[in-house]
Amino acid sequence: MTIFDKILNADDNVVGKVITVPTLLSECGTKVTIDEKEKYNIEIEAGDYLVVCMGFTAGKGGAKFTHPNIAATNKEIHEFKHYRNNGSKFWSSRAGVNHYLVIPRNQITLLPEKGYSYIRAEINGVKVSFNVSGGGGGGWTDYLSITTSTSVNHKLLDFKKICEVAVRNSPFEPLTVKALEPNEEAKWNTLAAKATPKIKERIAKMVEEGKKPIIQFVPFISYQGQKSGVAIEVQRRTKMVPIADKPNCFSWESIGAPKYFILSLGYNGVRAKVTQIDWYKTAELNGIIA
After folding, report:
1. Residue 237: predicted pLDDT
2. Which terminus, N or C, of the chain has the lesser number of Cβ atoms within 10 Å?
3. How buried is 100 (Cβ within 10 angstroms: 0-12 exposed, 13-18 middle, 19+ buried)?
């Protein structure tokens, strides 16, 4: 029986343990009722732990964060739903990183709040919302399974507090998480680069400061078999600027956005357009993005 079958078959008229105050999940049993009048219930899959997925978009501190109590981590493309003023909706995608935590239920407090597909809870003093499936006829039932997820981009300090009460070497380990397919990996890299502000300018500044960053070409470009090289010069777009003490006079100066990077590949110098550079891999190689 699937989660959806359980929701459809749930009897909203059956009252579970009524909770009106924050209650440890370990004391809730398999069904609780938060509002008897509106028949708002939560069905809970039996067990001693929750496997909680907490995500962060690339560029956020939590995406790079490590902790010994994190059971598994994987890359994922997060999808976000947005609403326009006229009521229509659209979706956007961002590169994300998911961390998986195994948390004992005696460390999770269920809050007596109606979320309608979002179960409100608290873990080590941090309020979270579990993303769940819900529905019903005469009332409403949310279903909390052993594996669940929260909203993304919690504050790093809050995430650290949640990690403190997670455990390792539980019956769920080794925890298997899905890896990205090759086409998804390419999309993830592109989205991650977009999420990192001013990558091109940051690499250009490194070159101008004499730091010689490594530049990597996009997958379908190479030079005599080489996919990367050391940047030794930046050629910027020219920009018209006013001349001091000369009203209405201008000069063209190379102070615009980076246009080309001169790479050292063996004995040869190669001029690479910014469109020929894999900015995610370049940023990764130079410690700008993880």
Report:
1. 85
2. N
3. buried
User: What is the CA angle 273-275-281, rounded to 5?
Assistant: 105
For residues 12 and 106, state if they share a domain. yes
Dist. CA 25–CA 30, nearest whole Å: 10
Same domain, 233 and 168: no
The pLDDT tens digits of the residues spanning 128-178 come to 999 998 887 778 999 999 999 999 999 999 999 999 999 999 999 999 999
191 found inside a domain: no
Q: How do residues 112-133 score in pLDDT, each as one tens digit?
A: 999 999 999 999 999 999 999 8
Domain boundary, last residue among 177, 212, 236: 177
pLDDT computed for residue 4 by the predictor? 47
Do 204 and 141 reside in the same domain of the chain?
no
Question: Are 59 and 38 contacting, i.e. CB atoms less than 8 angstroms apart?
Answer: no
Residues 126, 228: Cα–Cα separation, whole Å: 45
Query: Domain boundary residue among 177, 206, 229?
Result: 177
- Note whether residue 95 is domain-resident: yes
Q: For the chain, what is the domain count?
A: 2
Among the residue ranges 25-34, 78-87, 226-235, 264-273, the one predicted with the least confidence is 264-273
280 and 289 in contact (C-beta within 8 Å)? yes
Supply the range of the domain harboring residue 80: 3-177
Residue type (1 letter), 245: D
State the amino acid at position 270 in one-letter form: V
Element holding 279 (H helix, E strand): helix 279-285
Same domain, 63 and 115: yes
CB-based contacts of 183-188 (< 8 A; 24+ apart in sequence): 184/77, 185/75, 186/219, 187/77, 187/93, 188/75, 188/76, 188/77, 188/95
Helix/strand/coil for 155: coil
